[in-house]
Amino acid sequence: MRCALPFVAALLLAACGTQQTSRQAHIPLTLPLMNTFGAATPSLPDLSNTALARDFIELTFTLENGATMPVFTRFEGPITVRVLGRAPSSLGPDLDRLLERLRREARIDIRRAAAGTDAQITIQPVSRAQIQSVAPSAACFVRPNVSSWREYRARRNDPETFWNRLRVRREMAVFLPADVSPQEIRDCLHEEIAQALGPVNDLYRLSQSVFNDDNFHTVLTGYDMLMLRATYDPNLQSGMRRAAVAARLPAIFSRLNRRGGRANTAPIPSENPEWRKAITKATDLGESRARRLHAARRAVALGTGFGSTDTRLAYAHYVLGRLLLASNPDQALGSFLAAGRIYQNRPDTAIHEAHVAMQIAAFQLSADRADVALGLVNRNLDAVKQSEHAALLSLLLLIKAEALTLLDRPTQAAAAQIDALGWARYGFGTEADIRARVSEIRAISPRTRQDSSS
Which helix (H) or strand (E) holds 121? Predict the structure, then answer.
């Protein structure tokens, strides 16, 4: 299940500066063609095989709600995928690109079903409202042993559709929203098809995976593809018990990941249920802002127990910073800087650092330090492109365009603006959403404050 919290779509950047004026709300925009990403080039994780085996067991045998899977399950044999109903135009190309990656990187025999035929995995776009009527905190989800939205609604409480009743995977249905941006649709395709194929859990401690409710990674990583490749290794079969799978994993990962032969693995503090409860409440859009703030501060306090370099502590600081933006920008900046210090000193958190850098760059732009904002943006663009995060890339480029304008470099500013809008079409979708993002960046610019005071 992909978390519905829109970390990029609700930036509240305007809290750092003046409010939008009616004139800014009608900024003239000429939108270029939509930008899209090319071939993926993910790198293998820099982790020991001992660590990978430990993660595999936890991802495979424990559900997100804490329940356990009694046996290992996967599809046995070739897998076909179909799309049911009217699909947004971006879904087909993104699905084909994902299936090609699964064949090439994870070595899974998966392809589109012939027109008009059934399939092991059904993808059905529905409305966002339909999804949230049954799963309020979800952007999208996958359910076993159903083949359509109608069947899911009819069998929602049927135990045969529960994950922990599986013994082998035969049929899965992925439900994703049709009325969102192309990036949100693609992100759902990646996480939900991956869950239909393999891991059933999300772990906040994973820094290199989409199987993490922090939502920093939006497409399957090299780590994820390695986990899926191990899932479909011929030495595993559906129905195996946890101990039997664990016994075979060292040889499997030794063969699949020759660089991961380090014997020792640093211990990782176990998940703290109280921290998870706090961070879940802090990111729950259904909770009041006061309760979310209280929960975020508690998550920061509890997060110190994981150690000063743990990504869960950094994430708690980041969430607190987001919640403080509207009411206390100075404290928000302090929280972002605390998160950034952790992410900057790790080799596996480049995309996390980029999210923080975008917020700090917005503060620098608002403070009329355009050169500092520009430097922050430029240092993080490659990581964002590598992670294929179009919405974040668009925002960074909008900040860059505004910074270049303040530095009196109009030609470069215009080029950055056009590039930003091309990525915004993929990342945010509608012209109204794109205008809102452009207005937020303009609202924090010193030149906007000068114009409004003159």
Answer: strand 121-126
Question: DSSP characters for 367-398?
Answer: TT-HHHHHHHHHHHHHHHHHHT-HHHHHHHHH
Helix (H), strand (E) at residue 239: none
SS3 assignment, position 169: strand
Which residue matches tokens 């409440």? 281
Taken in order of first residue, the domains within the chain and their CATH numbers are 2-37+268-453 (1.25.40.10), 49-260 (3.40.390.10)
Tell me the residue ranges of DSSP E strands in 98-229: 110-112, 121-126, 138-144, 172-177
Query: For 183-236, what is each residue's pLDDT tens digit?
Result: 999 999 999 999 999 999 999 999 999 999 899 999 999 999 999 999 999 999
Place of tokens 């215009």: 414
Angle in degrees, CA 420, 44, 230, rounded to 5: 120
Nearest by Cα to 98 from 237, 260, 220, 234: 220
Residue type, 202: D
Mean pLDDT value of segment 154-178: 96
d(C-alpha 359, C-alpha 342), whole Å: 15
Query: 70: which DSSP letter?
Result: S
Does the model's pTM come out above 0.85? Answer: yes
- Distance in angstroms (rounded) separating the CA atoms of residues 323 and 289: 8
Distance of alpha carbon 254 from alpha carbon 361, whole angstroms: 42
Whether residue 149 contacts residue 127, with contact meaning beta carbons closer than 8 Å, is answered with no
Give the other-Cβ count within 10 Å of 129's Cβ: 9
Q: How many CA atoms lie within 13 A of 132 on its CB side?
A: 14
